[in-house]
Specification:
Layout lengths: L18 E2 L22 E5 L6 E4 L2 H9 L3 E2 L1 H5 L22 H9 L5 H5 L2 H18 L3 E2 H6 L1 H11 L6 H13 L4 H24 L5 H10 L6 H14 L2 H15 L8 H7 L4 H11 L10 E3 L3 E3 L2 E3 L4 E4 L1 H4 L34 H18 L4 E2 L21 E3 L1
Parallel strand pairs: 1-2, 3-9
Antiparallel strand pairs: 2-3, 4-6, 5-11, 6-9, 7-8, 10-11
This protein binds protoporphyrin IX containing FE (HEM).
Keywords: Heme, Iron, Metal-binding, Monooxygenase, Oxidoreductase
Protein name: Cytochrome P450
Family: Belongs to the cytochrome P450 family.
């Protein structure tokens, strides 16, 4: 039950000038201060670098409504000049470009592969990949870049193995993801990179059609060729989501989790020391770090209202786009007590970092497993882990989809 005063429904005719969005964070992992004044207003009007103006929802309750109410459509966004930070319009065809019933049909092809029980079977494999990477780092000796040497190759190797991307093409997946996530590539570069990448995708599909294997590519090819459940365009769309969404997010979060644990936090408990002393706390700590770290710079995929819909007391008219800030919702004091503190054993942690509702992250169990194993193994293998450079020398990324550091130089 909300404790906020009810403001009645406001008609969209009284709208103020749009705020410039996203609120780019230039340093650190704190929630951008410009979200604070929005806490007491239901929706704000925002203008992104490209596309139409949008409504921004920041309250936990409103964010969950936008993400789960079928009156807010993702499929519509593909047909519109959707608000976005990069030039590239969103491609159709995949899970995050469809609404039910198409979405339900596409997701049913993959959902069995991503259940908690199925993913738990991968724990040993994830541990072995992590240990292999740490062996190399320990052998070479400190210092090391925890981002490049560990946070990147762990999820990358795993998703490429699960999908069935040949080892020699892992680098291509990375360069394609870099382009997609930079938001600043010129149309010519984008076009060239897309042509290159999708030519490789066609090569993998051809190889899997000739020689099926025990991987997700084979599963998708069968659903397309034998069962007729998905079209070739949908297959490629889903594959693209699995490959890009399957490592970029986790890579960034591994780096961010360690940055948060290693950076000095005056007036806060020694988070790293606590995890070292109580490794059984790691699964809960992962949930709390997922809540706390504002991974996406407010850049969730816009939804379009299919009909006039009241949201947080504001009338969103049919055809208007709405963006949600998961980062702000995760710090909403109505949903989390003491939201700006990291509390590993926080009870009932209803963060929305994996989304909410029908598009809830397909890879959430996989991501959790990777994040847990990453924390466990690094803490066990690198006693005395600490930053290798003064805090002032750390280089934060700016104006990109994902917040975080360029490199994370560590010693142990
Ligand atoms: C820390 C890591 C991750 C985070 C924070 C994350 C976050 C999210 C979020 C917020 C959504 C919902 C988007 C929306 O509703 O607009 C989503 C969807 C999705 N994620 Fe993740 N993700 C992570 C890891 C992964 C991994 C490892 C995979 C690999 C399988 C993956 C695959 C997907 C897919 C396919 C969707 C679309 C689901 C649908 O539309 O039904 N994600 N993710």
């Amino acid at each position: 039950m909300s404790h906020r005063p009810s403001q009645g429904t406001t008609d969209t005719a009284q709208r103020p000038e749009p705020l410039s969005y996203p609120f780019w964070t230039t340093e650190g992992l704190d929630l951008h201060p410009d979200y604070r004044p929005l806490r007491d207003q239901p929706l704000a009007k925002v203008r992104l670098p490209f596309g139409e103006d949008a409504w921004l929802a920041t309250r936990h309750e409103d964010v969950r409504t936008v993400l789960s109410d079928p009156r807010f459509s993702l499929a519509e966004a593909v047909r519109r000049d959707q608000p976005r930070i990069g030039r590239m319009p969103r491609a159709g065809g995949g899970l995050i470009a469809t609404d039910a019933p198409d979405h339900t049909r596409l997701r049913s092809v993959l959902s069995k592969e991503f259940t908690a029980r199925r993913i738990e079977r991968l724990r040993d494999r994830v541990g072995r990949i992590a240990d292999g990477l740490l062996d190399r780092m320990v052998q070479a000796g400190p210092p090391a870049d925890l981002s490049e040497d560990f946070a990147f190759p762990l999820p990358m190797t795993l998703i490429c193995e699960l999908v069935g991307v040949p080892r020699e093409d892992h680098g291509r997946v990375r360069s394609w993801a870099d382009i997609v996530c930079s938001g600043s590539a010129s149309p010519e570069v984008l076009q060239k990179e897309a042509a290159d990448f999708f030519a490789r995708v066609n090569g993998w599909l051809h190889a899997h059609r000739q020689e099926p294997a025990d991987d997700l590519l084979t599963l998708l090819v069968r659903a397309c060729d034998e069962d007729g459940v998905i079209s070739e365009e949908e297959l490629v769309g889903v594959l693209n989501e699995l490959l890009v969404g399957g490592f970029v997010t986790t890579t960034n979060q591994i780096g961010n989790f360690f940055s948060l644990l290693l950076l000095p936090r005056p007036d806060e408990e020694d988070l790293l020391g606590r995890l070292r002393a109580e490794p059984a706390l790691i699964p809960k700590a992962v949930e709390e770090l997922l809540r706390f770290v504002p991974l996406l710079n407010g850049l969730t995929l816009p939804r379009y209202a299919l009909e006039d819909t009241e949201l947080g007391g504001v009338l969103v008219r049919a055809g208007e786009p709405v963006i949600v800030s998961q980062a702000a919702a995760n710090r909403d004091p109505e949903a989390f007590s003491d939201p700006d503190r990291v509390v590993f054993d926080r009870p009932g942690n209803a963060h929305v970092s994996f989304g909410y509702g029908t598009h809830y992250c397909l890879g959430a169990h996989l991501a959790r497993l990777e994040l847990q194993v990453a924390l466990e193994r690094v803490l066990a293998r690198m006693p005395g882990l600490r930053l290798a450079v003064p805090v002032a020398e750390l280089r934060w990324r700016s104006k990109q989809f994902f917040s975080g550091l360029h490199e994370l130089p560590v010693t142990w």
